[in-house]
Amino acid sequence: MTPFRDRTEAGQLLGEKLTNYANRPDVLVLALPRGGVPVAFEVAKTLNASLDVFIVRKLGVPSHTELAMGAIASGGVCFLDEETIRAFDVSPEAIDLVMEHEKKELERRENLYRKNRPETNFRDRTIILVDDGLATGATMRVAVMALKPHQPKSIVVAVPVAATEGFSEFGAEVDEVVSVILPERLWAIGHWYNNFSQTTDREVCSLLEQATCQLSAT
């Protein structure tokens, strides 16, 4: 399986797998910042759908920050992976410190990305949640948890690449799960991109503005 050139190409290929959602006014593409935004931008463009962000922050294990022990989302929703916490013997105090740090970053991103944009209404919408990949699924899981109380019509999880285990687990939690690549072994999400450079805040804001302009022009 050939890696994606970058997040733009990944989003274009993912969009091709979601064309049954094209040109539907109820569809809303929600990106998980920051890496999910360039992917979701291409998906929204392909589907002629609205694009917005849903802020979720991974809670990294202190000794292995890339490994998620949980996640938090807008609205105070929190998911903790008790199995990972036990495996790495993470103390409650350490969890609280990580959570406090990530809450501050979540609030910073909310203020920066949303600016003067009104709160999005998710009720009776078909939500397509997009990220640049699915490894442990912690951030995506907490996003789904945070969205369900808003009573969307359906929730679709869409990613360019996913761990097989994480992919199958979501089948019971959402209405559909879509992935371009399902490798036998994930290794790391970045392994499936030739260019996996960090997406900046400036890029996120620029893509959100472009998406709004494009939809207004159609």
UniProtKB/TrEMBL annotation:
Question: Which CDD domains does the record cross-reference, listed alphabetically?
Answer: PRTases_typeI (cd06223)
Q: Which Pfam families match?
A: Pribosyltran
Entry keyword set: Glycosyltransferase, Transferase
Entry keyword Transmembrane: no
Q: Which GO terms describe its molecular function?
A: glycosyltransferase activity
Task: Specify whether Glycosyltransferase is a keyword of the entry.
Answer: yes
Domain annotation Phosphoribosyltransferase: ranges: 13-166
Taxonomically, which superkingdom?
Bacteria
Q: Which InterPro entries match?
A: PRTase-like (IPR029057), PRTase_dom (IPR000836)
Q: What is this protein called?
A: Phosphoribosyltransferase
Species annotation: Floridaenema flaviceps BLCC-F50
